[in-house]
Design a protein that fits this description.
12 helices; single chain; 180 residues; mainly alpha
Protein backbone atom coordinates (compact mmCIF):
# COMPACT_ATOMS: atom_id res chain seq x y z
CA UNK A 1 0.00 0.00 0.00
CA UNK A 2 2.79 2.39 0.91
CA UNK A 3 4.70 1.70 -2.29
CA UNK A 4 1.54 1.94 -4.40
CA UNK A 5 0.43 5.31 -3.00
CA UNK A 6 3.81 6.99 -2.50
CA UNK A 7 6.41 5.21 -4.67
CA UNK A 8 8.75 8.20 -4.80
CA UNK A 9 9.19 8.05 -1.03
CA UNK A 10 11.40 5.02 -1.62
CA UNK A 11 14.02 6.96 -3.53
CA UNK A 12 13.52 10.60 -2.53
CA UNK A 13 13.61 10.22 1.22
CA UNK A 14 16.77 8.79 2.74
CA UNK A 15 15.12 8.97 6.18
CA UNK A 16 12.53 6.36 5.24
CA UNK A 17 14.21 3.58 7.23
CA UNK A 18 14.47 5.76 10.34
CA UNK A 19 10.81 6.81 10.00
CA UNK A 20 9.71 3.18 9.63
CA UNK A 21 11.80 2.12 12.62
CA UNK A 22 10.46 4.97 14.77
CA UNK A 23 6.84 4.18 13.86
CA UNK A 24 7.38 0.47 14.55
CA UNK A 25 8.85 1.31 17.98
CA UNK A 26 5.74 3.37 18.71
CA UNK A 27 3.71 0.18 18.35
CA UNK A 28 2.12 0.62 14.93
CA UNK A 29 1.17 -2.54 13.07
CA UNK A 30 2.93 -2.45 9.65
CA UNK A 31 -0.06 -4.22 8.09
CA UNK A 32 -2.48 -1.38 8.97
CA UNK A 33 -3.10 1.83 7.04
CA UNK A 34 -2.34 3.87 10.17
CA UNK A 35 1.25 2.66 9.88
CA UNK A 36 1.51 4.13 6.37
CA UNK A 37 0.01 7.42 7.51
CA UNK A 38 2.40 7.63 10.47
CA UNK A 39 5.45 6.93 8.30
CA UNK A 40 4.41 9.62 5.82
CA UNK A 41 3.86 12.14 8.58
CA UNK A 42 7.27 11.36 10.05
CA UNK A 43 8.86 11.73 6.60
CA UNK A 44 7.30 15.05 5.73
CA UNK A 45 7.24 16.75 9.12
CA UNK A 46 10.42 18.49 10.18
CA UNK A 47 11.68 17.51 13.62
CA UNK A 48 11.34 21.11 14.84
CA UNK A 49 7.70 21.21 13.68
CA UNK A 50 6.98 17.90 15.47
CA UNK A 51 8.51 19.28 18.67
CA UNK A 52 6.54 22.55 18.41
CA UNK A 53 3.25 20.71 18.09
CA UNK A 54 4.27 18.33 20.85
CA UNK A 55 4.85 21.38 23.07
CA UNK A 56 1.46 22.89 22.16
CA UNK A 57 -0.33 19.72 23.25
CA UNK A 58 1.76 19.58 26.43
CA UNK A 59 0.77 23.20 27.23
CA UNK A 60 -2.84 21.99 27.20
CA UNK A 61 -1.96 19.39 29.81
CA UNK A 62 -1.38 16.34 27.66
CA UNK A 63 1.32 13.93 28.80
CA UNK A 64 3.85 12.50 26.37
CA UNK A 65 2.06 9.16 26.58
CA UNK A 66 -1.28 10.80 25.72
CA UNK A 67 0.30 12.45 22.66
CA UNK A 68 1.82 9.17 21.47
CA UNK A 69 -1.45 7.31 22.12
CA UNK A 70 -3.36 9.94 20.14
CA UNK A 71 -0.81 9.61 17.34
CA UNK A 72 -1.30 5.84 17.26
CA UNK A 73 -5.09 6.29 17.09
CA UNK A 74 -5.14 8.99 14.42
CA UNK A 75 -1.69 10.01 13.11
CA UNK A 76 -3.10 12.85 11.01
CA UNK A 77 -3.82 14.91 14.13
CA UNK A 78 -0.12 15.83 14.26
CA UNK A 79 -0.33 17.76 10.97
CA UNK A 80 -2.95 20.11 12.40
CA UNK A 81 -1.73 23.71 12.47
CA UNK A 82 -0.83 25.22 15.83
CA UNK A 83 -3.57 27.82 15.34
CA UNK A 84 -6.22 25.14 14.84
CA UNK A 85 -4.91 23.07 17.78
CA UNK A 86 -5.31 26.13 20.01
CA UNK A 87 -8.81 26.88 18.67
CA UNK A 88 -10.04 23.27 19.01
CA UNK A 89 -8.65 22.93 22.52
CA UNK A 90 -10.13 26.31 23.52
CA UNK A 91 -13.60 25.30 22.36
CA UNK A 92 -13.59 21.88 24.00
CA UNK A 93 -11.76 22.78 27.22
CA UNK A 94 -12.79 26.36 27.92
CA UNK A 95 -16.25 26.50 26.32
CA UNK A 96 -17.47 22.91 26.52
CA UNK A 97 -15.77 22.09 29.82
CA UNK A 98 -14.07 18.92 28.65
CA UNK A 99 -10.91 17.68 30.28
CA UNK A 100 -7.86 17.89 28.00
CA UNK A 101 -7.29 14.15 28.46
CA UNK A 102 -10.79 13.47 27.02
CA UNK A 103 -9.75 15.24 23.82
CA UNK A 104 -6.46 13.32 23.74
CA UNK A 105 -8.52 10.13 23.58
CA UNK A 106 -10.33 11.43 20.48
CA UNK A 107 -7.68 12.94 18.19
CA UNK A 108 -9.99 12.72 15.17
CA UNK A 109 -11.53 15.96 16.47
CA UNK A 110 -8.53 17.80 15.01
CA UNK A 111 -9.39 16.52 11.54
CA UNK A 112 -12.91 17.91 11.29
CA UNK A 113 -13.67 21.44 10.15
CA UNK A 114 -13.60 23.99 12.92
CA UNK A 115 -16.03 26.34 11.16
CA UNK A 116 -18.38 23.84 9.54
CA UNK A 117 -18.58 21.20 12.27
CA UNK A 118 -17.06 22.03 15.62
CA UNK A 119 -18.34 25.58 16.16
CA UNK A 120 -21.95 25.01 14.98
CA UNK A 121 -22.32 21.69 16.75
CA UNK A 122 -20.67 22.90 19.95
CA UNK A 123 -23.15 25.80 19.95
CA UNK A 124 -26.08 23.39 19.69
CA UNK A 125 -24.71 21.15 22.44
CA UNK A 126 -24.05 24.11 24.73
CA UNK A 127 -27.60 25.35 24.19
CA UNK A 128 -29.02 21.92 24.99
CA UNK A 129 -26.91 21.69 28.15
CA UNK A 130 -27.90 25.16 29.35
CA UNK A 131 -31.57 24.38 28.77
CA UNK A 132 -31.19 21.09 30.65
CA UNK A 133 -32.19 19.07 27.60
CA UNK A 134 -29.06 16.90 27.71
CA UNK A 135 -28.58 14.83 30.82
CA UNK A 136 -24.82 14.44 30.44
CA UNK A 137 -22.12 16.46 28.76
CA UNK A 138 -21.43 14.78 25.44
CA UNK A 139 -17.82 13.70 25.82
CA UNK A 140 -17.71 11.73 22.62
CA UNK A 141 -16.36 12.81 19.29
CA UNK A 142 -19.38 11.20 17.70
CA UNK A 143 -21.47 14.38 17.84
CA UNK A 144 -18.73 16.08 15.82
CA UNK A 145 -17.84 13.29 13.40
CA UNK A 146 -21.21 11.82 12.47
CA UNK A 147 -22.93 12.94 9.28
CA UNK A 148 -25.12 16.02 9.42
CA UNK A 149 -28.35 14.06 9.04
CA UNK A 150 -27.57 11.92 12.10
CA UNK A 151 -26.46 14.93 14.13
CA UNK A 152 -29.66 16.82 13.31
CA UNK A 153 -31.82 13.81 14.20
CA UNK A 154 -30.12 13.22 17.53
CA UNK A 155 -29.46 16.77 18.70
CA UNK A 156 -31.92 19.07 16.91
CA UNK A 157 -35.07 17.57 15.42
CA UNK A 158 -36.02 15.51 18.47
CA UNK A 159 -36.61 18.58 20.68
CA UNK A 160 -39.65 20.84 20.87
CA UNK A 161 -37.29 23.80 20.39
CA UNK A 162 -36.05 22.32 17.10
CA UNK A 163 -36.80 25.47 15.05
CA UNK A 164 -34.81 27.64 17.47
CA UNK A 165 -31.95 25.12 17.68
CA UNK A 166 -31.88 24.79 13.89
CA UNK A 167 -31.73 28.58 13.56
CA UNK A 168 -28.75 28.68 15.96
CA UNK A 169 -27.03 25.90 14.03
CA UNK A 170 -27.61 27.57 10.67
CA UNK A 171 -26.40 30.94 11.95
CA UNK A 172 -23.09 29.36 12.95
CA UNK A 173 -22.86 27.59 9.58
CA UNK A 174 -23.62 30.84 7.75
CA UNK A 175 -20.84 32.56 9.67
CA UNK A 176 -18.42 29.89 8.48
CA UNK A 177 -19.60 30.28 4.88
CA UNK A 178 -19.05 34.05 5.03
CA UNK A 179 -15.48 33.57 6.32
CA UNK A 180 -14.50 31.42 3.34
Amino acid sequence: MFFYNWPRNFYYYPGLKEAVDFVKKMGFNPLRSQFVAAVNIMLFMQKAEWEKKFDVYKRWGWSEEEIFTAFRKHPWFMITSEKKIMAVMDIFVNKMGWEPSAIAEQPILFSVSLEKRIIPRASVLQYLLIKGLLKNKPLAARAFTQCEKSFLQKFVNCYAEAPHIMKLYNEKLDLSENRN
